[in-house]
Amino acid sequence: MGVGMNSSKMILGLAAGWLLLWMAGLAGAQDWPQWRGPNRDNKVTGFTEPKEWPKELTKKWKTKVGEGDATPALVGDKIYAFGRQGGEEVVVCLDADNGNEVWSDKYKAPEARVPGGGHIGPRACPTVADGKVCTFGVSGVLTCYDAAKGTNLWRKETKDVPGFWASASPLITDGKCIAQIGKSPSKIIAYDLANGEEKWTWSGGETAYGSPVLMTVEKTNMIVAPTKSSIVGINAADGKELWKISFSGQYNSATPFVDGQTVFYSAPGGGFGGGRGSGGTVAYKIEKKDDAFEAKKIWTKSDCSGIYNTPVLKDGQIYGLSGGNRAAAYFYCMNAETGEKLWSDKTERGECAAILDAGSVLIGLSSDKQLVVFKPNKEKYEEVAKYKVADSATWASPIVSGNRIIVKDRDSIILWTIEADK
Which of 138, 305, 375, 419 is paired with 253 by a 20 to 30 Å CA distance? Predict the structure, then answer.
């Protein structure tokens, strides 16, 4: 009897130990409530690199959520996914532990038909804040839900979209949901998050396909957004235009990225028919002069630009994927202060890629289903690990939270974990 009790205690002790280890892995886990993370900069916090990367990641579950390129959102133990099933766009809340559905909603919506086919579903990432989740469908349907219950709080059917359909992820700030809609002119509209009441509207130019971000200069909160031929800074309080940068690349499908008072943007030149702007990568400093703001050019470079890709800033370097869309695509590194290209990898990647700053490593997922881990190194590309994480193309960005990696492929969400080899 004593032996049995000791064995039971030992088993319970081991179980408790594993539970504590599991909880410790999640304790520093980060929410990923919107496009490119909490600050829209693709920076991961609370990630601890394993001493040795396993030969394979551990697949926990896979759940179908519908076709589309929309990156999911993660808040607490809930994943919010946005996809297309049949003739409808579907919003699904999943339990992050097991992939089971918590709630869902759907509405009829047209397919996003584009040259070459495919990519018929949503592109915009759900945005979660203040107990609500906002989605933006390809046909311009903006919806706000109760994040816990899935109750539809309000919906705007704008029916005004650019030629390649809507793809800008909504932005929530100061009790407002900011959405970039329309074709020509482009409109950025602030809606009251609580009831959908329109608070202000900015319009100008023609809509691009990147998403807006926030920056603060001289205590003024600004929304930085791309249009077809410019990058604009708009006062987040009242929608008034503060400054504008002339920039025209192919589609302007990237998101601006910000470092303090500096705005960076990158997009290739040309297009299917050519002549759609010179593109490249640019850096501008936003300064206040008297009562006005102005954008001063720091540098501009013609290379290191990739379509559908937004680079990440890390320790004074810019890491991204150049090329894509019928051109060979490679990881690259450039100096953020000067724009000098420091290196370009020689391994061809997919058409697009997202690179996350996870502290001691960079984690990239390209559309060719490969998740790669490499060192932030201004001298050379230094790969640490590489994993196949899907059976279909991966156009959405991954989410890294604790030891969990969440991947969206053509129609499913997959949860992988980093676990030591046995």
Answer: 375
